[in-house]
Amino acid sequence: MRPKKTRWVKCLPGERCFHPLCKKPGVLEGVEVTIDEFEAIRLADLEEMTHARAAKLMKVSRPTFTRILSLAHKKVADGLVNIKAIRIEGGCCRIKTGRTK
Fold first, then answer.
1. Among 3, 35, 40, 52, who pairs with 91 as Cys (CB 3.0-4.6 Å)?
2. 48 found inside a domain
3. What is the domain extent for residue 22?
4. Per-block average pLDDT, block size 10, for the chain (101 residues)?
C-alpha cells in the first residue's frame, strides 16, 4: 500500500470531541474522524463547494476527495445513529497558511 499524500486543511477544529449527554462517558463507544475528513465535510457541506474545487484546495484528486468525504459521512452517521462519541484527530494533514489562489 502506498503512503497517503499530504492533505491540506485551512485550520484545526476548535472542539475535538462531541459526545451525547444521554450516556456516561465510561460506557460510550466512539468513532474517529480524521482532520482531513473533517475538512472535507466543512468544504463540501458547510461551504457548499464542488468536489473539484474542494479537492484542489486540499491538494488531492477529485476522486480522492470524494472517497474522503464519503468515509467522513459514514463515520458521522455511525456516531449519530448509534449514539457514539465523535472524536476529531489524526490524519495526514498540513495546515494551509497565507492566501489561496
1. 35
2. yes
3. 7-95
4. 64 72 78 92 96 94 96 96 88 60 46
